[in-house]
Design brief:
single chain; 76% helix
Length: 300
């Protein structure tokens, strides 16, 4: 039953609706923002030789928050017919009917518009790359209906911040940037397959596709192969960028985290697969710290 519009009722309703928008944007669950932020910082620090332009850094950090929020809203809009049937997602605002589909579309458009407004303060190449990035972001939520490999598209969406960061910082997109882009795509397939393992049983019933379903009983093995490829790609990045002992030490810790994630998913228990997914925040942070320390302590 709706509360009558008496004194103070309107502000309370407005506050309640803003809270639903915040939940729709996943502001209470920053893991996705962090998984997008870390490779963006890798790229900005390497492209800027340890000294990224402050304006570029500010635009990209704000852009990460805005675009991840817009992506979550679009994801829930695309999944509004699926989420009410999945244990983990049935309390989302769109699934509960607390936010209408039109409100969600308007919110996503507003977030995207603000992010694009920020990008317009950067150079032309970055603006053009941002337009392609917007297509990747909007298309991703709908792909799980057509392909078992939506995780690759997610990786391309998240990794697109790398060529954008190089373009904004240097005006070009060198070979190193594309190597980093490939590394981020591999990393996203690793952690999002762990995430999809949580929902695998529900997804099978609903006809939703994912790498977790495609890999089947070979999921742990293939995740392990991808983890090795990721470490190789990160080593090649360090070699090409001239990163030294601090970075190599960080990769050693990242390798240990990969082993820990394998241990967590060994029985494919949903709650432990989710912990393995969350652990990737530490993975990305460790790699960034290695890059950061290299540039702090590298000989002038």
């Amino acid at each position: 039953m709706q509360e009558p519009l008496g004194q103070g009722a309107l502000p309370r309703r407005l506050g309640s609706q803003l809270r639903e928008y915040a939940l729709l944007m996943r502001l209470d669950r920053p893991i996705g923002t962090l998984l997008l932020l870390w490779p963006t910082l890798w790229a900005l620090w390497i492209a800027g030789q340890g000294r990224p332009d402050p304006h570029v850094l500010l635009v990209f950090v704000a852009g990460v928050v805005l675009m991840r929020s817009a992506g979550c809203v679009m994801n829930d809009f695309a999944d509004r017919g699926i989420d009410p049937h999945v244990e983990r997602t049935r309390d989302r605002p769109l699934a509960r009917g607390a936010v209408s589909p039109l409100e969600a579309l308007l919110l996503a458009a507003a977030l995207g518009a603000v992010a694009f407004g920020l990008v317009l303060t950067l150079n032309r190449l970055t603006v053009l790359l941002a337009l392609a990035g917007a297509v990747l972001t909007v298309a991703y939520p709908f792909l799980k209906r057509f392909t078992h490999l939506p995780q690759i598209w997610l990786g391309a969406s998240f990794g697109w911040s790398v060529p954008m960061a190089f373009a904004a910082q240097t005006g070009t997109v060198p070979q190193l940037a594309w190597l980093m882009f490939i590394a981020v795509v591999i990393w996203a397939v690793v952690y999002d397959t762990m995430y999809a393992m949580v929902d695998r049983e529900d997804d099978l019933k609903l006809g939703v596709r994912s790498t977790a379903i495609l890999f089947g009983a070979a999921d742990r093995l293939l995740i392990g192969v991808l983890q090795l490829l990721l470490l190789l790609a990160l080593w090649l990045i360090g070699r090409q960028a001239g990163l030294g002992a601090w970075y190599l030490g960080a990769l050693a810790i990242a390798a240990a985290l990969s082993l820990w994630q394998q241990r967590l998913i060994r029985d494919r228990r949903p709650e432990l697969c989710f912990r393995a997914f969350l652990n990737n925040h530490h993975y990305g942070m460790v790699v960034f710290v290695g890059i950061l320390l290299h540039y702090i302590y590298a000989p002038a």
